[in-house]
Amino acid sequence: QVQLVESGGGLVQDGGSLRLSCAASARTSSNYAMAWFRQAPGKEREFVAAIMWSAGTTYYQDSVKARFTISRDNAKNTVYLQMNSLNPEDTGKYYCAATLQRALRQHTNPQQYTYWGQGTQVTVSS
Protein backbone atom coordinates (compact mmCIF):
# COMPACT_ATOMS: atom_id res chain seq x y z
CA GLN A 1 0.00 0.00 0.00
CA VAL A 2 1.32 3.42 -0.96
CA GLN A 3 -0.01 6.67 0.45
CA LEU A 4 0.65 9.86 -1.45
CA VAL A 5 0.47 13.36 0.01
CA GLU A 6 0.63 16.39 -2.25
CA SER A 7 1.59 19.90 -1.20
CA GLY A 8 2.68 23.17 -2.74
CA GLY A 9 -0.48 24.37 -4.42
CA GLY A 10 -1.81 27.89 -4.09
CA LEU A 11 -2.84 31.08 -5.83
CA VAL A 12 -0.39 32.60 -8.29
CA GLN A 13 -0.56 35.30 -10.93
CA ASP A 14 -0.35 34.69 -14.66
CA GLY A 15 3.30 34.02 -15.52
CA GLY A 16 4.21 32.89 -12.02
CA SER A 17 5.71 29.64 -10.74
CA LEU A 18 4.86 26.94 -8.23
CA ARG A 19 6.50 23.70 -7.16
CA LEU A 20 4.30 20.79 -6.17
CA SER A 21 5.56 17.95 -4.01
CA CYS A 22 4.26 14.40 -3.66
CA ALA A 23 5.58 12.48 -0.68
CA ALA A 24 5.13 8.72 -0.75
CA SER A 25 4.61 6.76 2.46
CA ALA A 26 6.41 3.72 1.19
CA ARG A 27 9.55 3.26 -0.74
CA THR A 28 8.56 3.91 -4.34
CA SER A 29 11.68 2.31 -5.66
CA SER A 30 12.50 1.27 -9.17
CA ASN A 31 9.23 -0.64 -9.31
CA TYR A 32 7.03 2.41 -9.64
CA ALA A 33 5.84 4.93 -12.19
CA MET A 34 4.73 8.28 -10.77
CA ALA A 35 2.56 10.88 -12.45
CA TRP A 36 0.75 14.16 -12.05
CA PHE A 37 -2.79 14.67 -13.28
CA ARG A 38 -5.03 17.70 -13.01
CA GLN A 39 -8.74 18.32 -13.08
CA ALA A 40 -10.52 21.60 -13.71
CA PRO A 41 -14.16 22.12 -12.69
CA GLY A 42 -16.49 20.44 -15.14
CA LYS A 43 -13.64 18.72 -16.99
CA GLU A 44 -12.16 15.26 -17.00
CA ARG A 45 -8.95 14.47 -15.20
CA GLU A 46 -6.05 14.95 -17.60
CA PHE A 47 -2.46 13.78 -17.72
CA VAL A 48 0.23 16.35 -16.99
CA ALA A 49 3.55 14.53 -16.54
CA ALA A 50 5.00 11.17 -15.54
CA ILE A 51 8.35 9.77 -14.46
CA MET A 52 9.59 6.20 -14.41
CA TRP A 53 11.36 6.00 -11.07
CA SER A 54 14.14 3.64 -12.06
CA ALA A 55 15.42 5.19 -15.26
CA GLY A 56 14.13 8.70 -14.66
CA THR A 57 12.41 8.72 -18.04
CA THR A 58 9.90 11.54 -18.23
CA TYR A 59 6.76 12.23 -20.24
CA TYR A 60 4.74 15.44 -20.60
CA GLN A 61 1.49 16.67 -21.99
CA ASP A 62 2.33 18.83 -25.00
CA SER A 63 0.87 22.00 -23.49
CA VAL A 64 3.22 21.88 -20.48
CA LYS A 65 6.34 20.37 -22.02
CA ALA A 66 8.33 23.60 -22.23
CA ARG A 67 7.13 24.93 -18.87
CA PHE A 68 6.85 22.07 -16.37
CA THR A 69 9.51 19.71 -15.05
CA ILE A 70 8.88 16.46 -13.19
CA SER A 71 11.65 15.06 -11.03
CA ARG A 72 12.20 12.69 -8.11
CA ASP A 73 14.32 12.59 -4.99
CA ASN A 74 15.23 9.04 -4.03
CA ALA A 75 16.36 9.93 -0.53
CA LYS A 76 13.13 11.74 0.29
CA ASN A 77 10.84 9.38 -1.63
CA THR A 78 9.28 12.45 -3.20
CA VAL A 79 8.26 13.51 -6.67
CA TYR A 80 8.17 17.16 -7.68
CA LEU A 81 6.44 19.15 -10.38
CA GLN A 82 8.11 22.48 -11.08
CA MET A 83 5.64 24.68 -12.93
CA ASN A 84 6.84 27.86 -14.63
CA SER A 85 5.10 30.42 -16.83
CA LEU A 86 1.74 29.43 -15.41
CA ASN A 87 -1.40 30.67 -17.13
CA PRO A 88 -5.10 30.54 -16.18
CA GLU A 89 -5.58 27.38 -18.27
CA ASP A 90 -3.34 25.58 -15.76
CA THR A 91 -5.88 26.13 -12.99
CA GLY A 92 -7.20 22.96 -11.40
CA LYS A 93 -6.72 20.39 -8.70
CA TYR A 94 -3.45 18.55 -9.16
CA TYR A 95 -3.20 14.90 -8.17
CA CYS A 96 -0.19 12.68 -7.68
CA ALA A 97 -0.57 9.07 -8.80
CA ALA A 98 1.53 5.92 -8.63
CA THR A 99 1.47 2.43 -10.02
CA LEU A 100 3.77 -0.48 -10.53
CA GLN A 101 5.76 0.22 -13.64
CA ARG A 102 5.36 -3.28 -15.01
CA ALA A 103 1.57 -2.87 -14.96
CA LEU A 104 1.59 0.43 -16.83
CA ARG A 105 0.61 0.30 -20.49
CA GLN A 106 -0.48 3.86 -21.16
CA HIS A 107 1.04 6.47 -18.89
CA THR A 108 -1.53 9.11 -19.86
CA ASN A 109 -4.52 7.02 -18.74
CA PRO A 110 -5.57 7.77 -15.14
CA GLN A 111 -7.32 4.40 -14.86
CA GLN A 112 -3.94 2.68 -15.01
CA TYR A 113 -2.76 4.21 -11.75
CA THR A 114 -3.45 2.40 -8.50
CA TYR A 115 -2.60 4.95 -5.83
CA TRP A 116 -3.75 8.55 -5.64
CA GLY A 117 -3.20 11.49 -3.36
CA GLN A 118 -5.93 13.82 -2.15
CA GLY A 119 -4.92 16.60 -4.53
CA THR A 120 -3.69 20.16 -4.16
CA GLN A 121 -5.40 23.19 -5.68
CA VAL A 122 -3.58 25.42 -8.15
CA THR A 123 -5.25 28.66 -9.13
CA VAL A 124 -3.71 31.02 -11.68
CA SER A 125 -5.23 34.48 -11.84
CA SER A 126 -5.16 36.61 -14.97
| Alpha carbon gyration radius | 13 Å
Distance between the termini: 40 Å
Q: Number of helical segments?
A: 0
> How helix-rich are the residues, as a percent range?
under 10%
Number of extended strands = 11
What's the order of the H and E elements? EEEEEEEEEEE
Quickly give the structural class: mainly beta
Poorly predicted regions are none
Choose one word for the global shape: globular
Give average pLDDT, whole number.
94
Major sheet size, sense and barrel closure: 7 strands, mixed
Query: What fraction of residues sit in β-strands?
Result: over 45%
Write the SSE topology:
Layout: E1 4-7, E2 10-13, E3 18-24, E4 32-39, E5 46-52, E6 58-60, E7 68-73, E8 78-83, E9 92-100, E10 115-116, E11 120-125
Parallel strand pairs: 2-11
Antiparallel strand pairs: 1-3, 3-8, 4-5, 4-9, 5-6, 7-8, 9-10, 9-11
Describe, in plain words, how this protein is organized in 3D:
- The chain contains no helices and eleven strands.
- By secondary structure, it is mostly beta strands.
- Strands 2, 4, 5, 6, 9, 10 and 11 form a seven-stranded mixed β-sheet that branches.
- A hairpin with a 5-residue loop joins strand 5 (about 45-50) and strand 6 (about 60).
- The termini are far apart.
- The mean pLDDT is about 95.
